[in-house]
Amino acid sequence: MSLKISIAHLYPKLLNLYGDRGNVITLIKRCEWRGIEVEFDEINTGDSIKEHDLYFIGGGQDKQQIEVAG
After folding, report:
1. Beta strands 37-43; 54-57: pairing state
2. DSSP 13-29
3. CB of 5 within 8 A of CB of 37?
4. Per residue of the chain (70 residues), what is the pLDDT tens digit?
5. Is residue 18 within 8 Å of residue 58, measured between CB atoms?
6. Rounded to an integer, what distance in angstroms lies between the CA atom of residue 37 and that of residue 21?
7. pLDDT attached to residue 9
8. 7 closest CA partner among 57, 41, 36
9. Least buried of 12, 54, 58, 70, by fewest C-beta within 10 Å?
10. Residue 10 is inside which H or E element, if any?
11. Are 51 and 3 in contact (CB under 8 A)?
């Protein structure tokens, strides 16, 4: 049986205050080490959001959080 997971990183260009890309890389590598196939998408403002198994969103300053919310 083959396992597959889809991961979406939401708004990485705006909400990456704490280097959150590293957390996403860690998730992907840990899956790969266990033989789990990973489909990965970065979703930015204006992009449509399709269904994923896991959504990751990082931290951002107030201005960027307001931009993403609006």
Report:
1. unpaired
2. TTS-TT-THHHHHHHHH
3. yes
4. 789 999 999 998 888 877 788 999 999 999 999 999 999 999 998 899 899 999 998 888 877 887 888 7
5. yes
6. 19
7. 95
8. 41
9. 70
10. strand 4-10
11. no
Structure letter (DSSP) for residue 3: -
First to last CA, the chain: 42
What is the arrangement of strands in the sheet containing 37-43, beginning at the earlier edge strand? 37-43, 4-10, 54-57
Quickly list DSSP for 26-69: HHHHHHHHTT-EEEEEEE-TT------SEEEE----HHHHHHHH
- Give the DSSP letter of residue 7: E
Tokens of 39: 């489909």
> What pLDDT shows up at residue 16?
80
* C-alpha span between 46 and 6 (Å, rounded): 20
